[in-house]
Design the sequence.
């Protein structure tokens, strides 16, 4: 989750947003990456989504961390270096930090500096003797050598919230391989992954009755107006979210209600009625499916914790010794990728 404080933007970020929107509207199907949902207002809307009765992931994962946090910390090793990717307002992190040793080191990584410093300060007040080293960067672009290593300690990545679900499976393997390089051989990964489940439950979670998810999706258009001077009529687009069962993912779209145009600078993009901008994928994985991806990225599955309904999994995995070795991607008959029963 993220908090709602307004975030100053750099020229670089504005360029990224403009370039992404322009490229996304030119291609077919039209797409805009979900990371642009999270401006100040979008972050606020996301926090509201998390409070709705339909959006189960946040409270389900929180419950798993509450119940099994001590065991997770023991798995990782109490004196570890814990690296959180996209820490945001880090609301779930105390559930883990409270079980780590005083000499553990916490390294929150987030692209938004005010956000990062504010949440780190809050955690530092809660855990005064723990060393905290916030790092302001885009974790996709973070290289292992930019991380200060602490000799003789296990490094572990903490990646909650099922954010990995925004990646296609292929990109998820890339990101997981990147995480393995960050922690080094023998390092850990504690990651939250939303599960496949009844399409009705999934549909409700992305179509909450209060309309927060719709507002969150549509905010992308108003952000384009505000920050890029795009000329468009946001009321002529509709929120559409559905479970694509064949691909195992929720898709969010902004669907044009009529024939209309979006103008961006000198360019004009025509939409037919029913034509959409694809704004987000949220992939859902069984424990075995996720473990298979992780194996292909150099990880050895160790433990999976789940909730009573089997709706959400928190996985703990260990980075292989032979980094990047293709052998690590071999399937289960080597006994490396056999699924662990949910706890
Ligand atoms: C933050 C990416 C995990 O996919 O469920 C919530 C974002 N989108 N409602 C998700 C989201 C619509 C969320 N993640």
Sequence:
């Amino acid at each position: 989750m993220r908090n709602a404080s307004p975030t100053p933007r750099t020229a670089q970020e504005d360029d990224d947003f403009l370039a992404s929107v322009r490229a996304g509207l030119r291609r077919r199907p039209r797409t805009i990456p979900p990371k642009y949902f999270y401006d100040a207002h979008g972050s606020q809307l996301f926090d509201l989504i998390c409070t709705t009765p339909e959006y189960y992931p946040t409270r389900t994962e929180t419950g798993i961390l509450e119940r099994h946090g001590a065991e997770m910390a023991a798995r990782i090793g109490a004196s570890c270096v814990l690296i959180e990717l996209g820490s945001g307002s880090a609301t779930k992190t105390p559930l883990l930090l409270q079980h780590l040793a005083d000499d553990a080191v916490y390294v929150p990584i987030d692209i938004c500096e005010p956000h990062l410093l504010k949440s780190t300060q809050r955690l530092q007040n809660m855990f005064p003797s723990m060393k905290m080293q916030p790092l302001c960067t885009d974790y996709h672009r973070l290289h292992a050598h930019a991380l200060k290593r602490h000799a003789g300690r296990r490094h572990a990545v903490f990646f909650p919230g099922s954010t990995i679900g925004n990646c296609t499976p292929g990109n998820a393997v890339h990101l997981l391989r990147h995480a393995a390089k960050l922690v080094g051989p023998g390092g850990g990964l504690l990651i939250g992954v939303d599960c496949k489940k009844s399409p009705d439950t999934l549909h409700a979670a992305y179509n909450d009755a209060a309309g927060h998810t719709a507002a969150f999706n549509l905010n992308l258009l108003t952000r384009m107006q505000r920050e890029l001077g795009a000329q468009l009529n946001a009321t002529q687009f509709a929120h559409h979210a559905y479970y694509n069962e064949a691909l195992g993912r929720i898709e969010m779209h902004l669907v044009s209600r009529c024939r209309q145009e979006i103008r961006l600078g000198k360019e004009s993009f025509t939409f037919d009625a029913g034509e959409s901008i694809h704004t987000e994928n949220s992939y859902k994985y069984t424990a075995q499916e996720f473990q298979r991806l992780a194996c292909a990225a150099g990880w050895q599955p160790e433990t999976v914790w789940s909730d009573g309904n089997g709706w959400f999994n928190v996985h703990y995995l260990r980075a292989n010794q032979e980094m990047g070795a293709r052998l690590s991607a071999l399937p289960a008959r080597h006994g490396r990728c056999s699924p662990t029963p949910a706890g």
About this structure: The two ends are 25 Å apart (CA to CA). The CA atoms of residues 164 and 172 lie 6 Å apart. DSSP finds nine helices and 14 strands in the chain.
